[in-house]
């Protein structure tokens, strides 16, 4: 990115369109490099309707066309989001409930005076800042079960003070989630900044996750997942300031609670959202012209509407992760069927969350891609 703009620093968080330009540029360079070294790399704009893995290869089906290939890599990103339980069919049909925040932003919706955003993570913040810039008179309410924004980044990048190996050794002595949390808190308390300890664990996440038995993983998802996400996906300082400014001006408030239901108000012009705050009190009712669901990426392959993945799950070519974290796979990214691993079918990214845990951000996906390419070339 610095090639195109020398003012960009390594610690900057650049706008998404700029990151998109950068990626396109990198892909162009990689393809040119590949061609110069004699590789025939083609990009084919086709939707894969079905994949049929076999012991000797994979058949890719696109409409009437079925082509046998030596190997296939499923890199389909996160899955289509589902509406939350409690959102009525009328609310979904009203056009006032946005299940996919990115689709909403590309579709240029009409302004609403009041917007409710369900979720308080980075996606919710992106949506709020983008809509607040487009609609200067709109007020926003953000909701989440815990009622916290993500933690802030430091103005300068937090460099881990060590490689985390000592902490990891301590954690591996006994794979018990409560013990891990206790040890992590204790170690963070010893450092000037907790972020450096937390970040030193990132390269070891797959190893640690692999040690956790299924019941402990489920416990982590129930009790500690939200805190992990808050600490892991942090806000850059300019974003912290933009959110604080919106709150200070009164255009943004946030509430803690669980969404019970969303339905269409009698006048048809707004939605009514029922929010149960923690504790014994009666639920509140909030009203807005637009409700945006920004509750994070979807990974659950058990009930997905993604046509290709659905086909593969129904045909038992792949096995959904029992905790709803993508597909069952080996640590070297091979997808599994009920009897073992496929030799020529791989996955990258979100689908590997159940195997590797940290598997949605570019540094991890880049490493996985490298590992898969090495295996393909070795084969
Ligand atoms: C709001 C947001 C902010 C993020 N910020 C960061 C960040 O700051 N840093 C970071 O490292 N990561 C970030 N991420 C995560 C990262 O951007 C994504 O995880 C990454 O883009 C995933 O890349 P991918 O190639 O696995 O999937 P995607 O980029 O989703 O690509 C999947 C591709 O598969 C194609 N596809 C799907 N089904 C089929 C089919 N049947 N046939 C043919 N093609 C198909 C799709 O069309 C798409 O082109 C962010 C994600 C989000 C949503």
Structure in words:
With 379 residues, the protein is of the alpha/beta class. The protein has three domains: 44-79 and 299-378, 3-Layer(bba) Sandwich (FAD/NAD(P)-binding domain), CATH 3.50.50.60; 89-152 and 234-293, FAD/NAD(P)-binding domain, CATH 3.50.50.60; 165-232, no CATH class. Helices cover 37% and strands 18% of the residues. The protein is built from 13 helices and 14 strands. The chain has a five-stranded parallel beta sheet. A three-stranded antiparallel beta sheet has the order 1-2-3. The protein has a three-stranded mixed beta sheet with strand order 4-14-13, with no helix packed on it. Helix 6 crosses helix 7. The model has no long low-confidence stretch (mean pLDDT 93). Flavin-adenine dinucleotide binds next to helix 4 and helix 13.
Q: What can be said about this structure in brief?
A:
The protein has 379 residues and is α/β, with parallel strands linked by helices. The protein has helices at residues 16-36, 89-93, 101-106, 122-134, 165-172, 177-190, 194-200, 205-211, 214-232, 237-248, 307-314, 353-356, 362-378, and strands at residues 50-53, 58-62, 65-69, 72-74, 97-98, 114-118, 139-144, 252-256, 258-264, 271-276, 284-288, 290-293, 334-337, 340-347.
The distinct ligands, each listed once, are: flavin-adenine dinucleotide
- CATH level-two architecture of the largest domain: 3-Layer(bba) Sandwich
The number of distinct β-strands equals 14
Q: Order of strands across the biggest sheet?
A: 5-12-6-7-8
Separation of the first and last Cα atoms: 34 Å
- Domains, number: 3
Computed CA radius of gyration, to the nearest angstrom: 23 Å
CATH superfamily of the largest domain: FAD/NAD(P)-binding domain
Secondary structure tally, helices: 13
Q: Which geometry do the CA atoms define?
A: globular
What is the CATH topology assignment of the largest domain? FAD/NAD(P)-binding domain
Order of helices and strands: HEEEEHEHEHEHHHHHHEEEEEHEEHH
Mean pLDDT: 93
Secondary-structure content class: alpha/beta
Give the assembly state of these chains.
Answer: single chain
Helix content: 25-40%
CATH top level of the largest domain is Alpha Beta
């Amino acid at each position: 990115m610095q090639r195109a703009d020398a003012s960009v620093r390594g610690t900057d968080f650049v706008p998404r369109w700029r990151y998109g330009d950068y990626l396109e540029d990198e892909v162009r360079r990689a393809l040119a490099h590949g061609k110069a070294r004699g590789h025939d790399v083609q990009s084919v704009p086709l939707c894969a309707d079905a994949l049929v893995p076999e012991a000797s290869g994979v058949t890719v089906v696109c409409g009437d066309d079925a082509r046998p290939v030596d190997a296939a890599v499923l890199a389909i990103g996160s899955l289509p989001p589902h509406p939350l339980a409690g959102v009525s069919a009328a609310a979904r049909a009203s056009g006032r409930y946005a299940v996919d925040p990115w689709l909403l932003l590309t579709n240029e919706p009409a302004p609403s005076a009041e917007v409710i955003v369900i979720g308080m993570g980075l996606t919710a913040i992106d949506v709020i800042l983008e809509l607040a810039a487009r609609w200067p008179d709109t007020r926003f309410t953000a909701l989440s079960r815990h009622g916290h924004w993500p933690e802030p980044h430091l103005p300068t990048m937090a460099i881990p003070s060590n490689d985390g190996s000592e902490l990891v050794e301590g954690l591996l002595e006994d794979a018990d989630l409560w013990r891990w949390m206790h040890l992590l808190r204790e170690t963070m308390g010893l450092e000037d900044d907790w972020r450096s300890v937390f970040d030193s664990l990132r390269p070891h996440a797959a190893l640690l996750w692999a040690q956790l038995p299924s019941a402990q993983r489920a416990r982590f998802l129930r009790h500690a997942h939200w805190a992990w996400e808050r600490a892991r996906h942090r806000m850059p300082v300019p974003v912290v300031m933009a959110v604080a400014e919106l709150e200070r001006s009164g255009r943004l408030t946030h509430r803690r609670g669980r969404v019970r239901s969303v339905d269409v108000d009698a006048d048809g012009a707004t939605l009514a959202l029922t929010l149960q705050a923690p504790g014994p009190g009666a639920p509140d009712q909030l009203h807005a012209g637009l409700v945006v669901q920004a509750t994070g990426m979807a990974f659950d392959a058990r009930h997905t509407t993604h046509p290709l993945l659905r086909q593969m799950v129904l045909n038992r070519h792949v096995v959904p992760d029992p905790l709803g974290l993508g597909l069952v796979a080996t640590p070297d990214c091979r997808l599994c069927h009920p009897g073992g691993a496929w030799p020529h079918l791989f996955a990258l990214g979100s689908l590997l969350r159940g195997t590797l845990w940290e598997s949605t951000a570019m540094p991890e996906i880049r490493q996985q891609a490298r590992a898969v390419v090495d295996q393909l070339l070795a084969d």
